[in-house]
């Protein structure tokens, strides 16, 4: 079985979506309102949009913080889109790729992820700097809890292989 490329692709996709900020589709409280979508229609079945909505609610983003939040959300969306495009291109060509071409395509995906995370980190730092102490505490706790959830899922997936 060739599980390694599939696992690497899944890991790359997951880490992009998660990207230190958007690691998975979170559990949302039913009584928390969805953030304004700035006139954009997004599918809430999309894990990135679900994560954006959840973080917005969990961080209690205020109207004054919407500008900085919008930069974070846009970076998350852009990262997911560019990653998805690269993965689709790679998958469409896998049947005829040489091993070297496959490795180069994977390197391109990994570099795209690294570049995207840097942009996301910059946008998030701007937002974080403008958060209240309670919001920063909520963000710190959410990120720690998220990492634990991801590790737990990864450990379970590793046991299956």
Would you kindly provide a written description of the structure presented here, covering whatever features stand out?
With 161 residues, the protein is mostly helical. It is 71% helix and 0% strand. It is built from five helices and no strands. Helix 1 packs parallel to helix 4 (99-129). The model is unreliable at 1-5 and 7-44 (pLDDT under 50).
Give a quick set of tags describing it:
161 residues, mainly alpha, 5 helices
How do the strands and helices of this protein lay out in sequence?
Layout: H1 3-18, H2 47-58, H3 66-93, H4 99-129, H5 133-160
Helix pairs in contact: 1-3, 1-4, 2-3, 3-4
User: How far is the first residue's CA from the last residue's CA?
Assistant: 10 Å
Largest sheet: none
Q: How would you state the average pLDDT, rounded?
A: 79
Annotation field: number of helices: 5
Q: In total, how many beta strands?
A: 0
Strand content is under 5%
Q: Would you list the SSEs in sequence order as H and E?
A: HHHHH
| Shape designation | globular
Q: What is the helix fraction of residues, given as a range?
A: over 70%
Q: Structural class of the helix and strand makeup?
A: mainly alpha
Radius of gyration: 17 Å
- Unreliable stretches: 1-5, 7-44
In short:
It contains five helices and no strands. By secondary structure, it is mainly α.
């Amino acid at each position: 079985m060739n599980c390694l490329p599939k696992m690497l692709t899944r890991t790359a996709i997951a880490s992009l979506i998660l990207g230190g900020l958007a690691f998975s589709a979170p559990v949302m409280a039913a009584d928390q309102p969805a953030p304004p979508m700035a006139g954009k229609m997004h599918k809430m079945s999309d894990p990135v949009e679900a994560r954006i909505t959840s973080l917005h609610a969990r961080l209690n983003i205020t109207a004054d913080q919407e500008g900085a939040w919008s930069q974070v959300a846009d970076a998350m969306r852009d990262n997911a889109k560019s990653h998805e495009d690269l993965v689709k291109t790679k998958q469409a060509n896998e049947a005829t790729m040489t091993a070297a071409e496959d490795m180069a395509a994977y390197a391109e995906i990994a570099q795209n992820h690294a570049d995207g995370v840097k942009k996301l980190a910059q946008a998030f730092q701007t937002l974080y700097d403008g958060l209240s102490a309670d919001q920063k505490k909520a963000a710190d706790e959410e990120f720690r809890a998220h990492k634990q959830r991801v590790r737990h899922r990864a450990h379970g997936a590793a046991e299956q292989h």
